[in-house]
Amino acid sequence: MIFSHDTELTLRAAAVLINTDRVDGEHLADLHALDEYLDSFGWTGRRDHDAAELESVHRLRTRLGGIWEIADDEARAVGQVNALLADTRAAPWLTRHPEMPEWHLHLASVHDPLWQRMGAEFAMALADLIRAGDLRRLKICAAPDCEAVLVDLSRNRSGKFCDTGNCGNRQHVAAYRERRSNK
Ligand SMILES: [Zn+2]
Ligand SMILES: [Zn+2]
């Protein structure tokens, strides 16, 4: 593990969120889909279950995707992560509870709006990445027909393909065919 468990899980959750509208259309179209996403990553706390909440998560998704796209421009990315920390009023405090008995940070009150709590977690995980000089781990899939993002947590930062479909495999097959046809 390169970063703390919290950070890695949160970065993965961010990538999955961003990819919900980058592969085969919109996969976060309704509140049911939002619940499924949130449950799969164990998000707790307030849920309004209304259109405004879904809309706010869509806006957060767009904003996060924007950070991935400028990850090679550290100064700009830092500016956007700082803006996200400020807009979500991230306020770290130490806590522990039965599901997570080790002391860890929570960044917002369970009563804060969903997007704000999610945004604060994402911003803090991105801040960890930036502090480690590892912003380039935020990548866009290298398959030519894929816009999905990935967070490359491999030790040597060699990851190139998203894990939403089969991009890595498809590219290996394509490269293999290419080599064969050039013989
Ligand atoms: Zn906790
Ligand atoms: Zn891909």
TrEMBL record:
- Zinc finger CGNR domain residues are 137-180
Q: Which Pfam families match?
A: ABATE, zf-CGNR
Instruction: Tell me the domain of life.
Output: Bacteria
Q: What is this protein called?
A: CGNR zinc finger
